[in-house]
Design a protein that fits this description.
By secondary structure, this protein is α/β, with parallel strands linked by helices. The protein contains 10 helices and 11 strands.
């Protein structure tokens, strides 16, 4: 994982040796394979009665969330606790952010606690890079606007590998609001990195140019091993913008129903799901769904990321959890 700085609005190489996870673009395939191997090792530890490991005892992990979150926030907090780290979670609501405090001043305040890692979710693109420059902590990007969400991509790769036994050659159809999705951007990059491919499916106004092959024809999902469903991110859409005529028409044309799936396909969704809009409840609750598996993967993958940033890699993990 490489470290980036923001200077004059551009991303530049670091001037120090701190390691961050800011973008999938920072990763090599070797990085991905190492992190997924570490996550698999941690999966064994989570099957024991005592699920805590002493690995990060004495370390401080700060979770700073400027946007609402259930899965990402809770899994990062639990991941740190399962590794015996000290944790603190700060949400924008109820903090000094409500009083107008800037991201820089919040970062400087938190730096005074000498954290080892800051996990940051923020609505502005580049916020994680900014905090990485402003503090001495290692920084994990837990989502910045519609830009990047690298740990989501990693947990999705882990989920796919567990389901199919491979990543090379998998075909993934990502369906929905691609334009506003940091999940889609990160996942497309990650799939390419491991030899898988993506096709983007959705309303024409919500298909960005140049990210991956695109189509508005829902029939294109037929060739996919995985149908990856995204919700309409109305909170990121400009007021008054009409990307689709109505949610009812969106559901009729692009909603994932049992009738649109073939045998053997698996369905994923990063959450939160809007049942009856982008995904039929019969699909969400079916044997084809990997949604719960994604949540489980989120814990061990985020344990792996925190461990990897602060220690030496998967060999020590295998010793810690007692697996060969």
């Amino acid at each position: 994982m490489t470290d980036l700085r923001v200077v004059g609005g551009d991303l530049l190489p670091p001037s120090d040796d701190r390691r961050h996870l800011l973008s999938v673009a920072d990763l090599t395939r070797d990085d991905v394979e190492r992190l997924l191997a570490t996550a698999r090792s941690f999966a064994h530890s989570q099957e024991r009665d005592n699920k805590k490991l002493p690995t990060l005892r004495g370390r401080l992990i700060l979770n700073v969330f400027y946007e609402s979150s259930t899965r990402t926030s809770s899994s990062f907090e639990l991941a740190a606790k399962r590794l015996s780290a000290d944790t603190m979670t700060l949400k924008a609501v109820g903090s000094s952010v409500d009083k107008g405090e800037s991201l820089k001043d919040t970062a400087l305040t938190l730096s005074a606690y000498d954290p080892d890692v800051i996990v940051l979710r923020h609505p502005e693109i580049g916020a994680a890079q900014f905090v990485a420059r402003a503090t001495d902590a290692r920084v994990v990007n837990a989502g910045d606007g519609k830009h990047q969400h690298p740990t989501q991509a990693l947990l999705d790769l882990h989920t796919m590998r567990e389901a199919f036994g491979r990543l090379d050659g998998l075909q993934v159809a990502i369906v929905g609001d691609i334009t506003h999705s940091r999940v889609a951007r990160s996942l497309v990059q990650a799939l390419k990195l491991v030899g898988a491919s993506a096709i983007l499916v959705g309303p024409p106004a919500l298909l960005p140019v140049g990210l991956a092959p695109t189509t508005s024809d829902i029939a294109a999902i037929a060739d996919a091993d995985v149908v990856y469903v995204l919700r309409m991110q109305q909170e990121r859409m400009l007021a008054g913008a009409n990307f689709v005529p109505s949610l009812r028409e969106y559901t009729a044309r692009w909603g994932i129903t049992p009738e649109r799936l073939r045998d053997g396909q698996r369905v994923m969704h990063p959450g939160p799901m809007n049942r009856g809009v982008e995904i039929d409840a019969r699909v969400a609750d079916s044997d084809a769904s990997l949604v719960v598996d994604q949540v489980r993967s989120g814990l061990i993958v985020r344990m792996a990321v925190l461990y990897d940033l602060l220690t030496t890699g998967p060999v020590a993990v295998e010793s810690a959890v007692g697996v060969a």
